[in-house]
Amino acid sequence: MSVLATLIFNMVYLLWGYYTTATDDYDIKWTMPQCVLTLRLIGLAFNVLDGRQPDAKLSASQREVALKERPTILEVTAFAYFPGSFLVGPQYSMKRYLDYVHGRLLDDISQNGQLPPCVFPGISRILVGFIYITLYQLGTMYTSDEYVLSFEFQKQSFFKRLLIIGFWGHVNMYKYIGCWLFTEGVCTTFGLTYTGKNEKGEFQWNGCENVNLYTFETANRFNHYIMSFNTNTNNWCAEYIYKRLKFLGSKLYSQFFTLLFLALWHGFHSGYYVCFFLEFIIMYAEKDLTSIFEKQEKLQSIMKAHVELRMLFAVVSFVYTFIFMGYSVVCFHLLSFPRYNQVYSSIYYCGHIIYLTYPLVSILIKKTLLKKPAEKAD
Q1: Distances (CA, A) of 176 to 106, 110, 190, 309, 361
Q2: Would the CA dihedral through 360, 361, 362, 366 be positive or negative?
Q3: HEC string of the chain?
Q4: CA distance 53 to 226
């Protein structure tokens, strides 16, 4: 009951804030840190609940963050408003925070009164954040929101419009990446991100990593973007929403309601709901198509035998993913229907048509490629 009450109260309070303060543009006000706090407090309630369950009933990830003792008001307040992460994240468990403030997290490296070697990794991450903010400023000078809504943009060729949207969507992600790198750098400088040593004996500071830059910049599948972008929030939703919907008996239903929760958590702008719906149907199509081609042994053997085909496939899939990632976040960035409808109309809603018709097209693909060989007569 406490988990349910915490979830309902925090979500209703947040949504009330969105409703009373929202404009037609991206708003930076008190609801931004409030949405971070909402997930933090809901997760905390789940952790306390899990701490009262027998370990045998919990998954490995739940056991790692379960709280056997209820935290005090002071601990909850400090956890909620830790200066390195209360504005834009990242999300991390109360267990990690308590281990940090009680000295358990850094026990193996904080000896003889020496500070842990976390300052250089933290500052390095902050400097990379400045690079991404600079790239964002330069990129939006070339392709601003006003440009993609302009008549000049619509005069470009169809393929060039697609490429511009891909570039514009990619660059707009850099403002989030820059902010996350700043906060991750601060948390690392504190020592909160420590996760032990790797196989080479090197210290690892990725406990609050919210973006994997290499995977994001080299993505040639949509799943790569999901795995590399806003990873802490994605992991939070996987642990506290997706896995808790196991009783539905369907991964597809669990994924749908998780994305619906994410859209609602962002606010009431229709662009959020269209964006997460696009993510849902794009991921469905990608997983289904990937499984089909993985079953084609002849095609797989040809790809393995010819490096030039693998390189060509990598380039084509990179360009395709780059373009349609930008396409899918048009509504996320522009938020209101009149604005994102203007951009989608300029490229004939091609992404919607492709992915909404895929379930029908997949039937033909499966009938063609997954034909069972006819049984020979005796």
Answers
A1: 29, 33, 21, 35, 36
A2: positive
A3: CHHHHHHHHHHHHHHHHHHHHCCCCCCCCCHHHHHHHHHHHHHHHHHHHHHCCCHHHCCHHHHHHCCCCCCCHHHHHHHHCCCCCCCCCCCCCHHHHHHHHCCCCCCCCCCCCCCCCCHHHHHHHHHHHHHHHHHHHHHHHHCCHHHHCCHHHHCCCHHHHHHHHHHHHHHHHHHHHHHHHHHHHHHHHHCCCCCCECCCCCECCCCCCCECHHHHHCCCCHHHHHHHECHHHHHHHHHHHHHHHHHHCCHHHHHHHHHHHHHHHHCCCHHHHHHHHHHHHHHHHHHHHHHHHHCCHHHHHHHHHCHHHHHHHHHHHHHHHHHHHHHHCHHHHHCCHHHHHHHHHHCCCHHHHHHHCHHHHHHHHHHHHCCCCCCCCC
A4: 31
The distance from CA 170 to its chain's CA centroid, rounded to whole angstroms, is: 14
Cβ count within 10 A of residue 234: 18
What pTM, to 2 d.p., does this model score? 0.89
In this prediction, residue 377 has a pLDDT band, given cuts at 50, 70 and 90, of very low
Q: What is the pLDDT of residues 120-132, one digit of tens each?
A: 999 999 999 999 9
Distance of CA 135 to the CA centre of its chain: 21
Residue type, 58: L
Tokens of 307: 């490096």
Could you give the residue numbers annotated as active site?
230, 266
The token pair at 331 is 């509504």
Asked if residue 345 has pLDDT above 80, the reply is yes
In whole numbers, what is the pLDDT of the chain averaged over residues?
A: 90
Phi-psi map region of 275: left, alpha, beta (phi>0 left; psi -120 to 50 alpha)? alpha
Q: How far apart are CA 40 and CA 294, in angstroms?
A: 39
Mean pLDDT to the nearest integer, 223-244: 92
- Give me the residues paired with residue 12 across strands: none
pLDDT confidence tier of residue 202, bands split at 50, 70 and 90: confident
Distance CA 129, CA 178 (A): 4
